[in-house]
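Entry:
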Amino acid sequence: MRARISQNKKILIWCAGILLLLTVLIFSGCKKEKTEEKVEMVFAVNTAVSVRGQIDDYISVSGDIYAGSTVDIHSEAAGVVAEIFVSVGQRVNRGDSIIAVDPSRPGMRYLNSIARTPISGTVIAIPAQIGMTINQAVPLVRLSGGGGLEIRLYVAERFISKMAMNLPCEITLAAWPGDVFYGRVNELSPTVDLASRTMEVRVTVTNTGSKLKAGMFAKVRIITERKNNVVKIPTSAMLSRFGEQYVYVVEKDSENPEQSVVRKRIVVPGINIDGMLEIQSGLEADEEVVTKGQTLLNDGVRVNVIERHAPAEEN
């Protein structure tokens, strides 16, 4: 009888031990699952929204403004400048008297020779001075005709393939901060300067408000390519690895809509200028892309958007 009771006790002890072990294993598994949930990584990122608009590729150069057409007035006789009838900035008509030259010689007195303008225009320079001895090769007065103003630029050899007639230009000057003037390429030099390896390019400019003057220094953007209705994003959003070019797009988590995940999106880039990148395919407008913090991301990971930048303004 005692042996049977002792055996029953052993069975009860074994059963209690097995139950205790199972309980410990169950709670350990639950604790492990909770721990794993706690260590799931959530990455902090900044984002921006892709937009649809215009993007320009351009070359920045600078140059001086010149009168579009200039004419130097010469005397038909050698002698001494006796009188000057015009002043800088004065408007003259064809046939007007410009300068009187006294061709007299020692012991011989002659009537003054009058130099007249062959065109109508504006006096922009008077190299001659009263009392100066001149000959027929010396320019007396320089006139600006009716050809408007032009800017002479020198483009580096590596950009020559992008140059073409009638390319639009945007012009800014220190004299008129905030103002933008517009022009077009109207002349391309047929040769390249051997010393500087540059090609001369001339741009006609619209002188809005008559603010521009010959002799001013101008900064010019020559628009070499202009695209409208394209998708564009900040350049910082794109990554390039192992021959792939891609961005991370922020989406709502299908399992938990209150949280966000990222999806890797292969894209085809286009023009990259002034911190904005054209996307030719792989992305649509109004999609949220990661612009900062994307280097550690993988497809499908959760993210916390710290800062959302406003969409870039459309041009």
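The first helix runs from residue 2 to 38.
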